[in-house]
Amino acid sequence: QVQFVESGGGLVQPGGSLRLSCAASGFTFSNYAMSWYRQGPGKERELVARIDNIAFSTIYAESVKGRFTISRDNAKNTVYLQMNSLKPEDTAVYYCRGLNTWGQGTLVTVSS
User: Fold this and answer.
1) Distance of alpha carbon 72 from alpha carbon 29, whole angstroms
2) Coil, strand or helix: which one is 35?
3) What is the DSSP letter of 58?
4) Which ranges of the chain would DSSP assign to H, the alpha helix?
5) What's the confidence (pLDDT) of residue 2?
6) Count of alpha carbons within 13 Å of 50, Cβ hemisphere only?
7) Averaged pLDDT score across all residues of the chain
């Protein structure tokens, strides 16, 4: 079945960086767009970034443009989210999504 396993979350100080990974299985990864979403405390889940499967074109939420980069490695069935210049408001559970399926999420906490 379709499955995603996220990793790379943790505690980081403001201004720091983290790289999230999402390993996919159960489908032909290279045929589908992939996305990262997040849900902060008391907030609704929101789209952070998306990468398509053909031209690898990307879109980003305005709040993360210039700081986050989504990428994918089709040979490894993995999508990444490089997060730089992290802010306390980036604190959230981050989920990858593809084929209308969610991963289990990984917690990112930005705090001094």
Assistant:
1) 10
2) strand
3) E
4) none
5) 95
6) 12
7) 96
